[in-house]
Amino acid sequence: MMRRSLPNLQRKIPPSATITIVGGKADASEMKVSWRDVDTFAETQGFSCFETSSKTGVNVDIIVEDILETVFERRFATEDDQEIFSDQPVYATTVLTSNNEEPAKVNGFCWIPLISYFRRKETN
Q1: pTM (2 decimals)?
Q2: How buried is 84 (Cβ within 10 angstroms: 0-12 exposed, 13-18 middle, 19+ buried)?
């Protein structure tokens, strides 16, 4: 399943995005997918992977820490580190909307722009 859906996912996210595989139901006695296979796949692709359980809370805190570390590392990267990402596409900080609306601001933690769902009432 992961191997088939990965190309589709990679077409929809920025090339510099970090992918983390999270497997749930760590508390279950029978697994539908071998964790060894998942770990091997993640390692070959350069992804992080975690096995979790929402029932017992196993590894949930570790995932949050890992994601926050990645966000802070990228957010506060030095100029030398920025060269690594210099060949990646740059996304605009605003999104143009219709003529009467102000530009929508882009969410700093997500590459998808925030677009208002409510339109202003037009005045006559």
Answers
A1: 0.51
A2: exposed
What SS3 class is residue 22?
A: strand
Does residue 40 contact residue 14 with C-beta atoms inside 8 Å? no
CATH number at residue 10: 3.40.50.300
72, 73, 74, 75 alpha-carbon torsion, rounded to 10°: 40
pLDDT in tens, 14-70: 877 788 888 777 667 777 777 788 888 888 888 888 888 878 888 888 888 888 888
Beta-strand relationship, 94-95 and 48-51 = unpaired
Residues 99 and 67 in one domain: no
Cα(89)–Cα(91) distance, rounded to whole angstroms? 6
pLDDT tens digits, 70-103 = 888 877 765 555 555 555 555 555 555 556 656 5
